[in-house]
Write a structure and sequence with these properties.
Elements: E1 2-8, E2 11-16, E3 28-37, H1 39-46, E4 62-69, E5 81-84, H2 94-97, E6 135-138, H3 141-144, E7 146-147, H4 154-158, H5 163-173, E8 181-185, H6 189-200, E9 205-210, H7 213-221, E10 225-228, H8 234-241, E11 247-252, H9 292-300, E12 301-309, H10 322-327, E13 331-334, H11 339-351, E14 363-366, H12 370-378, E15 387-390
Parallel strand pairs: 8-9, 8-11, 9-10, 11-12, 12-13, 14-15
Antiparallel strand pairs: 1-2, 3-4, 3-6, 3-15, 4-5, 5-7
Length: 394
């Protein structure tokens, strides 16, 4: 089968690889009908999330059709349409039962203290082969697959594999409620769904902070008040538009992309057609510099407000303006999304017609063009907000 395979920093290829097999009784094999490219995938390609093993299939977003199930899977059968949560969970440990499925004690083969397990990630996340392929193996399938109602399309469902629940999780971590003012830093795919989710949870005003005109325009189409940080100070603008108070809630939907080496702007894109080293230098890591998005967010939140961090940071990141946050009595919540917990309700909201997410899906590309799609998405070309990938097997 064809799959997107990581070979090294800046070096990913569309390779022929063996089809996955059932390894455990709880496994299922899924014929992928739609996958997607996520900003987190770029962190692996760039090397800002270190520890990737050569030969790992990339991608953590997928929908498809069940091809085969192990003897321990009793709630799915061949032919079922399913969405695959990006993070992996066993379904029976205390964290899963409490809804913290991103902190499952059993899914990560590195042990219960290793952190979140997800597809297509570094060795510390389990080195699970990802979903940018024609077929994929899903462990703990009885818990990690969710049936797609016939009223919901693949285009709608693929957005529920990761970015819609992550955006909603961000709004929930930020404790957004009726009447709140909210600032979302970063208008990429997750930021756009954080904007949508903030309005879903009753926010009266949402400020969208970015520098890319096309992404700001998408945010404006959702009703957000847009701030271009390339031409104005977002903290000053937010305070000016809120009577000097600041926003009740802020969401960092940028993550490591807002961390710059030695204070020199944003991390540059890495070409994905030839092997390269880390563009910032072999000895640089994201813990060496503060995140501009986090600094702005802490400054922009009103006293006793709440900051949510859903943008991805590596474990090497150590710099945070804790003094300013403490002086303002801020609440700070952060983490990987508990996808399995949120997806069913979001699928239901789509089925009922309460929300239509596909306006945020900007590109649909065949798997055969995936390397070019990675390059365009990495360069943040206009119109490349969210990219759906269609495998040949679809």
């Amino acid at each position: 089968m064809k799959a997107v395979v990581f070979h090294g920093i800046g070096d990913i290829r569309l390779d022929d690889v063996p089809e996955p097999k059932i390894q455990q009784p709880g496994d299922a094999i899924i014929r992928i009908t739609a996958s997607a490219i996520c900003g987190t995938d770029l962190h692996m390609v760039r090397g800002t999330l270190s520890g990737m093993k050569a030969g790992t299939i990339l991608g953590h977003e997928g929908v498809g059709v069940v091809e085969e199930v192990g003897a321990g899977v009793r709630n799915f059968r061949k032919g079922d349409r399913v969405v695959i949560p990006s993070t992996i969970a066993c379904g029976w440990c205390s964290y899963c039962r409490a809804g913290y499925t991103a902190q499952c004690d059993h899914a990560n083969p590195n042990g219960p203290l290793a952190g979140t397990a997800f597809y297509g990630g570094p060795e510390w996340s389990g080195s699970f082969d990802g979903l940018q392929a024609e077929f994929a193996r899903v462990p703990f399938a009885a818990h990690n697959l969710i049936k797609i109602p016939h009223e919901v399309t693949d285009e709608q469902a693929i957005l529920c594999s990761d970015i819609f629940p992550t955006g909603y999780f961000g709004a929930e971590l930020a404790e957004v409620g009726a009447g709140d003012t909210v600032a979302v830093f970063g208008c990429g795919p997750v930021g756009q769904f954080a904007i949508l989710s903030a309005f879903m949870k009753g926010a009266h005003r949402v400020f969208a902070v970015d520098c890319l005109p096309d992404r700001l325009e998408v945010a404006r189409s959702q009703g957000a008040e847009c701030i271009d940080f390339a031409s104005e100070d977002p903290v000053e603008v937010i305070r000016g538009l809120t009577g000097g108070i600041g926003v009740d809630r802020a969401i960092d939907a940028v993550g490591v992309d807002a961390v710059a080496p030695r204070g020199q702007g944003h991390p540059e894109e890495v070409k994905v057609v030839a092997p390269q080293t880390n563009p910032h230098g072999a000895n640089w890591h994201p813990g060496d510099a503060p995140s501009q998005a986090l600094s702005w967010a802490v400054e922009a939140v009103a006293k006793a407000g709440t900051l949510a961090i859903i943008g991805i940071y590596p474990r090497t990141a150590k710099v945070f303006p804790v003094g300013v946050a403490m002086n303002k009595n801020l609440s700070v919540n952060a983490g990987y999304c508990n996808h399995r917990t949120y997806i069913p309700a979001l699928i239901d909201s789509i089925r009922s017609g309460a929300v239509e997410p596909t306006g945020l899906l900007s590109q649909v590309q065949p798997l055969s063009s995936v390397i070019e799609a990675y390059e365009a998405f990495d360069r943040r070309q206009p119109g490349w907000l969210k990219v759906e990938i269609l495998p040949k097997a679809a």
